[in-house]
User: Fold this.
Amino acid sequence: MMNEKPAENLLQPLLNDLGDFALISQAISLVLAFALGWLTLHLIRRQLSTQLQAKWVEHGGNRVALPALVLLFAVLGRSVLEHWQSVHLLNLAVPLLVSFAIVQASFALLRRIFRPSPALRVFERTVSWLVWGVLALHITGYLDGLIAALDAIGFSVGKQRLSLYTVFLALISIAVSLVVALWAARMIEQRFIDAAPLNVNMKVALTKLTRGLLLVVAVLITLPLVGIDITVLSVFGGALGVGLGLGLQKIASNYVSGFTLLLDQSIRIGDVVTVGDRFGQVQRIATRYTVIRALDGTEAIIPNESLITTTVINHTLANPNNRVAVPVQVAYGTDLDKARTALLSALSGQIRVLQEPSPAVLLKGFAESGIDLELAFWIADPEEGQLLLKSDINWAIWQAFQREGIEIPYPHRVVEILNK
Assistant:
């Protein structure tokens, strides 16, 4: 058995100093630390521009900077007073301020990475309880004993011994490193978004690759720091390979297809596409699926593999201009010049119809009941759909034909009775 120094209880010395003048000087030192911290923060904010002040508030700068500054001045005050008197109050205040600063920094970081949600609130509450729980154990002197008890319970994996304390410390370290990696990825993502020369697909691809790389690096750096040999992960890697070979081929294929779509730029965010019977605008290209929003507001989640292996009609790949055709049939005997003028007049007032290329009326053929014409024109906003536009033009065609006396035929048969 190793002879260890008993853990110090920070509360008992403070209780013994309740009637001592040293307690008053320490309290004054804490008040000064808060005042100096607030004053320093105020001076720092005054040096920032209006735009930087807005970002400072948005990112929770006040909540993080104030406890950090107060902690700094409290530590300085303790280092001065400890030469002449006891500093038990400051010894207790410093870990309290450290814990408060950690909690506030964690909240600011999490809110910077994740959107507000019930899960985020639960995560924040868990972090708070964990930090304050460790602080309470430290103040009361039970933390070292709990660590020793957790470290005594363990098991071996090959030559590596893992204890409950090691596993718990690894989980905490990995969680912290992953949060920091996600925060760094978010910062890099913002730089990619601001990079004008890059197109949207390239920005998304680089963002996802950077995020994945940072997460892997964070895990590989954290595990050795807590005493876990990363060669233990070889077992997990082998299991993952077997899983990919047996049941995860589709998932792996979708992820590879997602990066292929982002890099080859055959489908881009904002493109108007037709996939099977789905027509809509590409809203998001994730690593596993692509979201296509239809004109009725519904969103289709299509696996990326389907976009690679099936035919996709991209209406805006090289040119956003799309040709629209409205078929019309007129009766035999109709003045076709008058019909063409009436059809072209139906496009007047339609702001979506382009003047170049110019609209045209085509004679498609001669049917059983009438002459087939086609009104062809171009639009530059296919994402707005064609149904409402065609409806408005058909209404205008009907009104123009009514004014000009142009007949739209209906199927009919001529029956001749021969007398023999």
The chain has three domains: 11-225, 258-314, 322-404.
